Amino acid sequence: MNYRHAFHAGNFADVLKHALLVRLIRSMQRKETPFVYVDSHAGRGSYDLEAAGEGDSRARTPEWPEGIGRLWGRTDSPPEVADYLGLVRDFDLRHGNLTPQPRFYPGSPRIAKALARPQDRLELWEKHPEECSALRDEFYAERRVSVHPADGYVSLRACLPPLERRALVLIDPPFESQSEWEHINSAMDEGMRRLPGGTYAIWYPVSERVPAKDYLDALRLAGKPSLVAELTLVPKGTGISGCGVLIVNPPWKIDEEARSIVNYLAATLCLGQQAQGSVRWVVPK
Question: Are 243 and 205 spatial neighbours (Cβ–Cβ below 8 Å)?
C-alpha cells in the first residue's frame, strides 16, 4: 500500500467525514456508559498542511484550500458544522499556528481523542509502517489509546465485542484496491456477528470507477438500519466527484444532523453547478 493521507488532509472528504464523526461521537456520549472507538485506517493522527504539497518525489497541489480552507473564516455554519470547526481551530491554535489560515489539521484519531471522556477508549489501526510509526509518536504515553501496526480489516475481529459492550467503528480505507468493497463486506460480516448493535461508519469515494451505490445496496447489513450521507461537488466523469459515509445502526437524529451538514457543505464547497448533498436510508428504521 502506497497511500499517504497527508496530501489529502483537510480536503472536502475530510471535512464531511470529520463533521459526521463529531456528531457520531457526541451521540454515543448521550449515555454515561463508556464505549470504544475503533479506527481501521487511522493514518498518522495529525497533519501539517504546509507540507501537504510535498509529494514523495515531486511537488503537488494541496487539497485543503478547497476543503477546510473554504470554511476557515466563515461564521454562518450550522451548529453541526460549527462544532467540528471549533475542534479544528482549537487544535490548530494549540499547535502554535497564529496565521489567518489553517496549518495543523487533526485526523480522525485526534478528533476522537479530543472528544473522548475518561471512560472511553481508542483502538487505532494502521498498516503502513511509516504512518503507523508517526501514529505511535502522536499518541505516545496517552492513556486509553492503543495503536496496532496491522491490517485494519482485522480490527473488527480483534476488538469486538469490547468489554464496554458499545463501539463506534470507523472504516476509512484508501480505496487503492479494486477489491476494497469485498474487504469491507467481509469486515462488516464480522462486525455484525460480533457486535450487531455497534455503530459502524464507512467512508467511500463517489466516482465512475467506484460505483458506490451498487455496492452499498449489496452490502450484507443483516437488516440493520443504515443511512448514507453523500456530498457531490463536481460533475460525474471527472474522477472522484464526491464522497459519502454509510452509517449502520445510526444514533437518534443523526439523519437530521447529517442533512444539515451535507446541505451546508454542498453550498459552501461547491465547485460547479451540480454540487449537492443528500441523505438516504439504505435500510430504513
Answer: yes
